[in-house]
Amino acid sequence: MARGVSPIHQRADYIETAPTGPAPHLHVVDPVPSHAQQKPRLSLDGVTVNFGARAVSAVQDVSLTIGAGEFVALLGPSGCGKSTLLNVMAGFCTPVQGRVLLDGEPLTGPSAKCGVVFQKHSLFPWMTALDNVAFGPRRLGLTNARQIAQDLLDIVGLAHVANEWPASLSGGMQQRVGIARALATRPPVLLMDEPFGALDAQTRSLMQEELLSIWDKLRPTVVFVTHDIEEAIFLADRVVVMQTYPGRIAREFAIDIPRPRSAEVLNDHAFIERRREITDVIRVEARKTFR
Ligand SMILES: Nc1ncnc2c1ncn2[C@@H]1O[C@H](COP(=O)(O)OP(=O)(O)OP(=O)(O)O)[C@@H](O)[C@H]1O
């Protein structure tokens, strides 16, 4: 996809060229999922995390392999351990059992290979948008840090606000600068913890399309935590549904909706069917948290 092409134009192209045949087939992950054939980027093997003296583990015996360039959404009811699992992948949290491999090497702490984006952006308020994005490359001593930042702001559609302060930008713009900053050191992995959770519905929807556009251009491996079932299906190649007490993987769903995707797929029969299946699983898990 050409750089600088807006999601709206991509959508127009997609509509014009989209196949008119039957709706794409979606299926529950089978014993030999397609992602298993990709080169593993991140592997969790029997990961368990306990907090303090709690009787129940926050995350228990979770094994998950994520391929290079794959987009995985972690979904599940509140408290099922999504953020904890993401923090384990980021090297912020050490499991009491199990191990995490990043490109085949044990992960022992935060890695430059992982960019992290949280729900609340963490831009430096005293730096312009451009300097925020250039911060990581400058720390690495890259002489072209400014050019890298300009290119990334261009990719997220914010070249025109490069010299503005974070406080003067909307929530959606701040989050786009945050994504550009997380990508500035070209990490092969992007870990996102409810990055659009604080945005209004319209901005959120645009940001989802924007993220897919960025992912299409740069192809990082993405792990995306969300409560939102539609968001997970719309974005991901695979949706991993977690269960609570203890936090474990309940079920995985492969999402075979063709890309590029636009908001129109939300009305697709296959999309609606997959949403119903995932909602059923989540409802059962969410009920357990009220017992
Ligand atoms: N720092 C901590 N100290 C103690 N307990 C914690 C800590 N962080 C998380 N927990 C507990 O671990 C469990 C999983 O929490 P986590 O935040 O990972 O879940 P989550 O699925 O991301 O929840 P939410 O969707 O509400 O953000 C919860 O029971 C939570 O109370």
Automatic annotation (TrEMBL):
Matching Pfam families: ABC_tran
Keyword Hydrolase found: no
PROSITE patterns: ABC_TRANSPORTER_1, ABC_TRANSPORTER_2
Gene Ontology MF term list: ATP binding; ATP hydrolysis activity
Keyword tags: ATP-binding, Nucleotide-binding, Transport
Boundaries of every ABC transporter domain copy: 42-269
SMART domains linked: AAA
Family: Belongs to the ABC transporter superfamily.
PANTHER family the record matches: ALIPHATIC SULFONATES IMPORT ATP-BINDING PROTEIN SSUB, TAURINE IMPORT ATP-BINDING PROTEIN-RELATED
Designated name of the protein: NitT/TauT family transport system ATP-binding protein
Organism lineage string: Bacteria, Pseudomonadati, Pseudomonadota, Alphaproteobacteria, Hyphomicrobiales
